[in-house]
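User: We ran a pulldown and think these components assemble together. Before we commit to crystallization trials, I'd like a predicted model of the whole complex to look at. Sequences follow.
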Amino acid sequence: MLWFFTAIQPEAVPVLKTFSMEREPSLFGTFYRSKEAVLVISGSGPVSMAAAAAEALSRFPAGPADIAVNLGICGAPAGYPYAQCYRIHKITDASSGRDFYPDLLAASDFGEAALITHSAPCASPATLADMEGSAFFETVAKAFSPDRIFLYKIVSDHGIEAGKTAPSLTPQTVTELIGNAFGGILKEVTAYTALLPEEPALNHETEAGAEALCTLLDASVTMRNDIRKMLLYLQLRDGNATEAVQRFLLAEGLDGQKPLRRKEGKLVLERFRQYCLL
Amino acid sequence: MYSNDSGNTASFNSSPAAGGASLRRAFSRVYVEETAYAYPRTERILEKLSADTVIKIRDYKNIFNRPNQAAALQKRAPAVILAVLKPPFLYPGAAVCQDFGERHFYYTSCVMNCPYDCEYCYLQGMYPSGDIVIFVNLEDIFTEITKVLTKHPLYVCISFDTDLPALEGLTGFLKDWAEFARNNPSLLLEVRTKSAAIQAISALPVLPNMILAVTVSPEPLRSRFEHRTASLSDRLKLVRTALLEGRPVRLCFDPMIWTPDFETLYGELFQTVREQLPAGKLRDVSVGTFRISAEYLKRMRKNRPCLVTAYPYTNQDGIYGYEPERVQAMLGFAAKQLEGMLPKEKIFFSEDLPKGVL
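Assistant: Here's a predicted model for the assembly, 636 residues in total across the polymer chains.
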């Protein structure tokens, strides 16, 4: 599942166009959801982002392979071209001085930059500047590992020259800026999920064997954990734990037997452990 | 910049996965503590790395200690963190490690983490990250050791939590340690490795107080579990070269891993060692079975189950290991294989053997 977090509606339009999403009720910000994605439009500023992100995470639990992406426009000093998209490798919260570091493990076609998050628009940014990044990271880091948190910022302005008014962006321009980069961003974050290691697990057959053994031995929680560990060992060793379990049960005369009492189950479990060590 | 055999760099696995994603190049990202820039080593290492991205940080722990890191992926494409080590600089040697009869057994970590990726390595249970931290202030460690040496001799293992010979091309640390050891004869150093860094070792002065400790495993187990390390034959080549140069060399059959064909695999290993090494010239040999703290094993099983860590070990006083009978059988087998290769007082076992076995 991909989770997109934006501050304002125009930034979210490319996401809405890509995924068929339905509106979800929310207290903070605006939520959309589909089978493949969650979209949180938080509102501007760190407090709005933190509140909306926290609510979304409590309402829709994040899975171990989910990715969180903050998409948005930013200000930048001269030297960072207009409309250029950057992957962020360091976020500094201007008010607290705290730094946050996404773990960018995948290779990328995007350039990288540091970001400073302010609570108000910044007139003269020293590096890329926005108003939500640090709050986004600090909040979603409760549910996402640092390698599954991405921030992509697209340069929309270079601050305000002294004496001049702030340049105004139209919603259409913002959507266009995000949209031009979104294809590459989506490809990149989707591809990253292919690199994530598979969850260590018993395969389907072994899982069934574990359950059957737990039932037979009237396994307590501790016994259940031990059984699963031993079957994982057999699965890693032999590729298939089920055969070993069946051989053991046959040798014990327990094949097809009704469940034992726990006291006897513990004794059988110890014998099974010795059997695994052969 | 790091080697698994003489001068050849091993390749990290960054090849594209399905969907076109590939990992960043190993060592392409460097984090540098602001205070580390004051040390000349920092600039030297940065030049060698030619990193794609250099990021200034305040404290290496902000990167290294991030919660829930994807350490297994990081091991395939590690970042480097250049930092300044703060006290303590010396730690008493762990109980699970052999002290070889040395009274004042300590270790130090001038580098945290290893460029190799052994599936059963305790570092995966100890460290939250697969990135490599290089501490650029070796002189502070030397100062601490010098102070302690005024009270008593020291035996210090400097390559426990890393593989310094494998990283010598990048860090140059062994040259600095060798110079320090040369000027401090009451200091005994152990440099442990799974590399075949012949050039790096041969460039060092031959010192009686700098032991090269080479870990060996049967080649089938090495290729199965010890990713990117030097082959058995290349490691034995390093040992032969070091012995010819007159260096004190320790051969480590530790950890020995049990498999159903243990005696076949390890029998072949000992036979190969007998045939290829002048074993009598070894300083000593260490033999031990796989053992690890319960805390580390729990983490390793959760984050990266493998055949070695998944074994149903026995917990004795917070240390997981094979059942006592199996340990005795494995050590006893090794003892028989080593009989006649070198004097028994030069063979150190991780546990006492029954009388009469050796």
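DSSP finds 14 helices and 18 strands in chain B. That may be worth checking against your pulldown data before setting up trials.

User: Thanks, that helps.
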